[in-house]
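Hi D.,

Good news: the full-assembly prediction came through. Inputs first.
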Amino acid sequence: MSEQVLAALEHVSLRLNQRDILHDISLEVHSSKVLTLIGPNGAGKSSLLKVLLGLEKPTSGKVWRKPQLKIGYVPQKFQLEPLMPLTVERFVCLGNNNKTQVPEALKAVGIEHLQQASLQGLSGGEMQRVLLARAVLNQPELLVLDEPGQGVDVAGLSELYQLLATLKSTYGYGVVLVSHDLHLVMAATDQVLCLNTHVCCSGKPEMVTSHPEYLKLFGLPNVGQGLAVYTHHHDHHHNLMGNIIQDSCKGHHHG
Amino acid sequence: MDDFMLRALIAGMAVVTVTGVLGVFLLWRRMAYFGDALSHSALLGVALGILLGVQEYWLVLAVCIVVALIMTAVQRKPELSNDTILGILGHGGLALGLIALHFSTQTGGRSLETYLFGDILLLQTNDVYFALGLSAVVLSVVWYFWQSLLLMTAHTELAQAEGLNTERLSLIYMLLIALVIAIAMRVVGIFLLTSLLIIPAATARRLARTPEQMVLIAVLVGLFALILGLASSWWLDTPTGPSIVVAAVLGFGLVQLLPQR
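Then the structure:
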């Protein structure tokens, strides 16, 4: 599968209510590649996704998306209007009318038994699968997930990341996902981007197998199956005011 | 049946059909207050129509559209909460309308009560055609955008990310509500108008398993309320508009007695 740039940000900054949310961010999203965004709360991860998706206009900088790019989006907290009666099946094919392919899509994410269930009664993890099924059904070129790990335990997260990896290799789409955990990212991640308003660092996650001490530290079961540990290599740190302090060792740049 | 009763029935059926359909969305999108504000400001349109000697429907429509556009524009810069903005616009329009109407009734216009509580029994043949025509427009637009409207209502950002122009669709929806207000104002009046949007939809929620069922049931509840209200007005001589609303509330109450599914 030939690799292709699906979307790109060039020197994007976003200011909302006199606050810098994003500062001078450039990145590229490729097909068949996984890009993971990590960063502390309020680092602008969700805002960056919104800019990428075109839901928010940047204050400055350029956003480019491949013309007619088909995006599958799995939003962070899916609060479905509780007064709207919808079954899983109906919701998954809402707006695309691929009703015949619904069972297949539900099966691909492992929730075929929920086809006729009401959306209102689903757990957080089930709802996430439903959204994923919807995204898969639309046959996107780019899959965007905002904190899919939220409300899911480590075993569930590992399972979810494996599922994403399988889907990615089956359909070949690019994946951008936000991880709320600074250290646990998807093993199949090609690039990790650590965000704190600006891009702190980016690079490949080190293979979990080479960091057995990390495993011991976290004491995670089955951690090798879907998760990887990303070790941060910042060339600076932040003081309490959030200002950037350059570290003395400058020969160690990543990304 | 007398002619005026037949006209009331036909126009009323057109009205409760569109209020049922759009009311369901109003309920899902939690915009009841929006309907209220728009219908209140409709009185300004009535007053202007009388002052200018123009058929008031068109000015009601114009005022509702302008208010809907202002609301959309203001909502993009959320300095105040939505219901506050709606309250300011709705009551501002209502107050202006009352002032304008005060001067127009002195010159022999219809009484204020007609507009506040409706006059379905006084409808002329033209009014019936107007109701039927506008209802047909509203229903066709909803039919055309059905899937998109559902998706936007279920999750706006998801719809946006998938390439739906939700701002345009929101605007279309608001304009439809403006149309409905222009049609429905004569039936129950501006004070009770929101009830025709909200009560049938709220009644249907308990019975429906799909969005389509909910719309259908809301329309049926509206028809039930209309017929019961007209009957009560015919035999018991109750005021028609309020009777229709009371019948709708009665229907809502009856459905609450059913066991939850």
